[in-house]
Structures are given as C-alpha cells and as structure tokens.
Amino acid sequence: MKKTWGQHFLRDKSVAQDIIQAASLTKDDRVIEIGPGRGVMTRLMAPLVRQLIAVEIDPRLAQGLQADFRPQPEVIILRQDIRRYKLPSELLSGPLKVIANLPYYITSPIIFQLLDWHLVNPEFRKTVIMVQEEIAQRLAADPGRKEYGVLSIMVQFYAAVHIVRLVPASCFTPVPKVDSAVIEIEFLPQPREKVPSVPTFKKVVKAAFAQRRKTILNSLKHNYGINVDLLDLSLKEAGIEPGRRAETLSIAEFARLTEAIYEKQKGNN
C-alpha cells in the first residue's frame, strides 16, 4: 500500500450493500468499479451484472483479484490508473454504470472524467461513488449554501445528485481522518439548462467564484475579461442584481447570464 494512492479499504459490508442497492444493478448492466481494493464490493456485484471491469492501481491488489476472479470471465481486473483509462469501444454505447470508492486527492478530476464518459455514452446514466463528506456536501449543495460553488454547478448542470448515506471513518482500514459519504449521481437526458456555449458557461461560473466574497459584478469584472459596461448590461438582461454574490445564483441564472454575455461578445467581434 502506498500513501500517495490514498488507500482506505472499506470493511463494513452494510455500506457496500447500500452502494449496490443505490446503483439499481441489473443483468443488462456493464459496470466499471474504480478502486476495488480488496474486492468487498466486487464480490457482491459480480453475480448481479453482465460484465464487471474493476480498475485497480495497486499491482499487488490487482494480482490478488485476478487470481480470485479467474474462474469468472465476466469479471475483468485491470491494473491501471483510472485517470489513464479510456472507454473501450464496447462501452461507448449500451447500459453502463460506475461504482467507486474514490481516493480523496483525485475526487474532482475523476468526477469530471465521468461527466465526459456520459457525454460520449448517453446510456451511462448513473454512478454511485464514495467520497469525502465535504466533497459530497459540495456536490449536492443548493444555491445560498457555503458549500455551493463551481463543482456543485458543473455537476448539477448535467445530473441530479443525492447523498445516499454518511459513512463514519471507522468503516475503513486504515481509519482516515475524515468521514465519507455515498452519493448517487444520475445523469440527465439533456443538460439542466440551455446555454449557447458550454465553454462560455464554464468560464462565467469559474470567474464568478474566483473571488467569492466579492459581488458578482466585481468578481466577473476582475476574472472574466469583459468590458464593465457590457457586463453591467448583461447582468441587467439576465435579471441579476450586480450586488449579489455568486453563491446565491441558481444554475438557471448562470445560464441566462451566459447567454447575455455570449451575445454581447458575439456582437462586438
């Protein structure tokens, strides 16, 4: 076990069972499990699905799982860093789900990787993952909460997020310093709001939260790179008071603001 891999092994089977129940697995599903570790969830999931691909970075653990599951051809154990894993052609369509106990240090990059997978395979509709409780609260946060920010908006733009349960640190070995939570992310058939440009939407959201103590007007003025008069006009057209803070804006309001800014910038080009 390497410290840099952030490994904490789940030892409470009731948590694994709750994760599997939330995933609503069927015999039609292909499942990717990220970080199977010692295989607690792998063993429970294998009989329930069409195919299970478990991606494990630790060569010692991967070797042990390969030996354990050799008689089960529907279970594929890959020794690989999930960040370098590319969906094979057979997973670019058809029912797909992802189950994961994510190391804290790579949580955000993996979540955005899962968003990318959904965009290439619309039948990838659900992922159930265990993350640090603080991250779970950020993912599920509503406008007005201190946890609400870029991660909340960019995930909820594409998905509904639900906290399934909290998981005390004592459910793992070695025991981590913080509690965890299981979250269900169910991808929507279409993004939550229409925007003229997703890159512009992302840029607006990130700039708005770059200085979250400032007003939306001041944060965008300093971090977006737009003429302040055009910005003021865009806020007015979107029906947003310039004195509000980014954390109070809904996704719908960010979408309206994106459209107004996009149109102003297009008109000036």
Describe the structure.
- There is one protein chain.
- By secondary structure, this protein is α/β, with parallel strands linked by helices.
- It has two domains: 3-187, 3-Layer(aba) Sandwich (Rossmann fold), CATH 3.40.50; 198-268, Helicase, Ruva Protein, domain 3 (Orthogonal Bundle), CATH 1.10.8.
- It is built from ten helices and nine strands.
- It has helices spanning 13-23, 40-45, 59-68, 107-120, 133-140, 150-156, 198-209, 216-223, 228-237, 251-268, and strands spanning 9-10, 30-34, 51-56, 75-79, 96-101, 124-132, 159-167, 172-173, 180-187.
- A seven-stranded mixed β-sheet has the order 4-3-2-5-6-9-7, with helices on both faces. The chain has a two-stranded antiparallel ribbon with strand order 1-8.
- Helix 7 crosses helix 10 (251-268).
- The termini are far apart.
- The model has no long low-confidence stretch (mean pLDDT 92).
Low-confidence parts: none
Secondary structure class reads alpha/beta
| CATH top level label of the largest domain | Alpha Beta
Give the averaged pLDDT, no decimals. 92
What's the main sheet like? 7 strands, mixed
Strand order, largest beta sheet: 4-3-2-5-6-9-7
Q: Characterize the overall form.
A: elongated
CATH architecture of the largest domain: 3-Layer(aba) Sandwich
List keywords for this structure.
two-stranded antiparallel sheet; 9 strands; Helicase, Ruva Protein, domain 3; 2 domains; Rossmann fold; 39% helix
